[in-house]
Amino acid sequence: MRVPNSVVLPVGTHVDCCREEEVEKKRRDIMAKMAAMLAERKSNLAHFIHNLEGSEEPEFYVDQWERLKEMESCMLTILNLVAVNCTDHHDIKKLEAVILEHVKNEELFPEVIRVLPPVYRQVEAAIVGMAGSEELSEHGMMDLQYLLSKLSQRDHLANLSKDLLQDILRYLHRVGLIVWYEEIKHLENTVFLQPTFLITVFKLLVRYHLVQQLESIS
Which pLDDT value is given to residue 203? Predict the structure, then answer.
């Protein structure tokens, strides 16, 4: 909701736990709840903006007003929910096909036709090679400066600057090849070349019945 022109594809899992007629009912219910949530958000923002504009000294609230207007302009596109059975390979392929179909939609993603400079592909190929090498630790974490030095050792990337590398990492983060939390101070100098490791960690920490499992430990 805070990203301009963002696109959300809701995915409903555990279809195998529902009867066929339940799936469609739940799909409609989820879509209706999201539509109501967005309508409520729009109404609340309009109410807050109106209150600031009607205050006795509105000049004192210019910063808040500008922030609210910025949030009001963030349009959110919600696509139709895709229901999948995660234990069925065909459903996973179906989800993949739906995602690719939407990503290629120039109306949803105007930048899909942008041509990337060759250096982006070169860095991407180098990072893919690193992630698949035996030299890299299982967790796939690498210091940003060390990554730059490793890439700069390659002849065609000898002139790679830190600023350009950071631009490329932002792109690779957006497409999901790597994970780089540059906005988090303690992680801004750490690049995760193997995002699947983070998924494994999250699965250990965030899971169903976790509280009950912890309470059962004497």
Answer: 80
Cα(114)–Cα(46) distance, integer angstroms: 35
User: Which tokens belong to 198?
Assistant: 């983070």
* Angle separating helix axes 162-174 and 118-131, nearest 10 degrees: 70
- Are 64 and 49 in contact by the 8 Å Cβ rule? The answer is no
pTM over 0.70: no
pLDDT at 61 over 70: yes
In the chain, where are the structural domains located?
A: 7-104, 118-200
Question: What is the Cα–Cα distance from 194 to 178, expressed in whole angstroms?
Answer: 6
Return d(Cα 128, Cα 201) in angstroms, integer.
21
Could you please state the CATH topology (level 3) that the domain comprising 118-200 is classified under. Answer: Arc Repressor Mutant, subunit A (1.10.10)
Taking residues 191-195, what's their average pLDDT? 91
Q: What are phi and psi of 78, to 5 degrees?
A: -105, 120
Q: Which helix (H) or strand (E) holds 45?
A: helix 20-53
Write down the pLDDT at residue 93. 95
Reported residue count of the chain is: 218
Taking alpha carbons only, the member of 161, 159, 163, 169 closest to residue 130 is 169
- Maximum Cα interatomic distance, the chain, rounded to a whole number of Å: 66
d(CA 156, CA 200): 34
Structure tokens given for 38: 């967005």
